Amino acid sequence: MSYETIICEVENNVAVVTIDRPPVNPLNGQVFQELADVMDELDRNDNVRAIVITGSGEKAFVAGADINEMASLDVVGINKSNQQSRSAYSKIENVNKPVIAAINGLALGGGLELALVCDLRICSEKAKFAFPEVGLGIIPGGGGTQRLQRIVGQGVAKELLYFGDMFDAQRAEELQLVNKVVESEKVVEEAKKWAEKLTEQPPVALQMVKTAVNTGASLDLESGLTLENHCFCNAFVSEDAKEGLTAFSEKRKPVFQGR
C-alpha cells in the first residue's frame, strides 16, 4: 500500500514506520487512518517480526494533534475523530508483533499517547514530553488519562495531566515512561538494534507475552493467571517451542520459524 503521511520501510524483518508531516508531524484523521492501515498490513506480513515507529526530522516525534483540524470540528466530528484515534492506537497496541517507539524529539499530547501504546520506548536525550491539553481547555482523548496512570501511578499521572508542564528525557526515564535514553543521532539506530534482536526471538512466544501482559493489566490476579496459563499452553504447543527445547538439549542456537 502507498501512504501520504507516513513512510513504511522493511529491512531485516524490521518495519520502520515514520510519521512524515514535518516539521513537527502533527496527527490528523489521515495519519490515524494510515497508521491503522499500515498496522493491518504489517500484522499480515510474515516477513515482519518487529516494528519501529518514529517521526521525520529531528525536531519532533509527534508534537500533538493537528489543532487546526480539531478546532473546526463540532461534537459529532470530535467524537468521530476520537474513535478514529482510539482505533489506530488500539491496533498499534495489539498488533501481534513488538512495537518500539523511537522518540526523536517532542512527544506532546497525542504524540505521547502514541508512544504509550508502543511496547517499548527509546528516546533522544533531547526529547521533551508533556500532556498540555488542559491549558487548551480540553483533556487527552486518545487514551492518555488511562494508559499514563497504569505506568506512573495515579498521583504522578494527575500531576502531569493537571499542570501540563513539559519534562525532559531524564524524568521520563525516572518515571519509567521510557526504557532507555540515548544520544540524539542514535535513537532510530538503537531502536532498530532492539527490533533486530527481537526478530531472533520466537514470534509465537512474543505474541503470547504481549497478550498476557496487555490483557492481564485490566484483570484481577486469578483471571490474569488463568490468561497466562492459556497463553503458556499456546506457546508450548508451537513448533518454535519444540525447536527451542530441542536446541537447548543439543546445546545449539535455536532457529525460530514463527509457527
Automatic annotation (TrEMBL):
Organism domain of life: Bacteria
GO biological process, one term: fatty acid beta-oxidation
InterPro entries (alphabetical): ClpP/crotonase-like_dom_sf, Enoyl-CoA_hyd/isom_CS, Enoyl-CoA_hydra/iso, Enoyl-CoA_hydra_C
CDD domains, per database record: crotonase-like
Keywords: Lyase
KW Cytoplasm (keyword) present: no
SUPFAM superfamilies tied to this protein: ClpP/crotonase
Annotated GO MF terms: hydro-lyase activity
Pfam families in the cross-refs: ECH_1
Family: Belongs to the enoyl-CoA hydratase/isomerase family.
Protein name: Enoyl-CoA hydratase
